Amino acid sequence: LLERVRSQAQQGTESRYGRRAHDMQPCLLVAEHQTHGRGRQGRAWLSSPGASLTFSLGLPLDLADWGGLSLAIGCAIAEALEPSSCLAAGQRPRLELKWPNDLWLDGRKLGGILIETVPAGEQRMVIIGVGLNIQALAGEPDTQPGATFNTGFASLSEFDATLDGPTVLARIAPAMARCLRDFPQGGFAAWTEAYARRDLTLGQPVSAGALEGIARGVAADGSLQVDTAQGLQSVSAGEVSLRLS
Ligand code: ATP
Asked: Residue 212 and residue 215: Cα distance in Å, rounded?
């Protein structure tokens, strides 16, 4: 993955990744044991040594519009593990996505994607943090305040018992690299169809902050469309948590 993103970034001043992208090196950090994982709004991300795949990919990426990058990355990961092309017509995928940054398996949360940008000289660096449960975690109940569901976590072993962390990383890394390569040009618009197929909340009653309604999918800018009593409203990821009501 590192080699692929590096070669993209080193296209220099002509790079789609920014005029001075060649000044900074992409880096990939994989934690053998993550002790202080976090999700959005400082929520804890739990992991156990040997049972979790947790890594951060940092790379220079000057994007005018970040909308939907976490959705696209989530889609790329899900597609790498469960290609839509292998599903029968009308077959529901087991791996689904919950806006804006969750990966779910069979109705329970399997993983999360956290995208942040940090200043790096005159540019910004994007850090894409991914946490995936590979095996069941040692019994931590999900009792944190603000947790959406207390249904327990899913693990990829339920999907394919032969998967281990390195195998999963090797499978999802090229898919992430392709997603990152193409995102500056195509944005989330290129993923809307793939996302819709895995959209966990599509047609479901949801609440996001004070807003309540029926989820109607995600627009090309990555915003969630919610049908409310006041009409169709767009919700951008920001700090809002989405609840299935
Ligand atoms: P939520 O999933 O509660 O709606 P969110 O999508 O904003 O919130 P994040 O902030 O990305 O979630 O992730 C943090 C939350 O994920 C925690 O509050 C906890 O509910 C859940 N969580 C923490 N560790 C794990 C894990 N290993 N597997 C699945 N879910 C986890």
From this structure: 9
Q: How far is the CA of 112 from the centre of ligand 1 (A)?
A: 7
Q: Residue 37 is part of which domain span?
A: 2-200
**In this structure, what token pair is assigned to residue 173?**
């890394």
216 shares a domain with 135: no
Q: Is 68 in the same domain as 153? A: yes
Instruction: Enter the pTM of the model.
Output: 0.87
For ligand 1, residues with CB inside 6 Å are 39-40, 43-47, 101-102, 109, 112, 133, 137, 142, 144, 147-148, 153, 241
In this structure, the answer to whether residues 55 and 12 fall within a common structural domain is: yes
Q: Are residues 67 and 95 in the same domain?
A: yes
Ligand 1 centroid–CA 17 distance in Å is 30
The answer to whether residues 61 and 171 belong to one domain is: yes
Tens digit of each residue's pLDDT, the chain (245 residues): 556 555 554 543 334 444 444 456 788 999 999 999 999 888 999 999 999 999 999 888 777 777 799 999 999 999 999 999 999 999 999 999 999 999 999 999 999 999 988 887 777 788 999 999 999 886 655 555 444 444 579 999 999 999 999 999 999 999 998 999 899 889 999 999 999 999 999 999 999 888 999 999 999 999 999 999 999 999 987 656 778 77
Burial 88-101 (b: 16+ CB within 10 A, else e): eeeeebbbbbbbbb
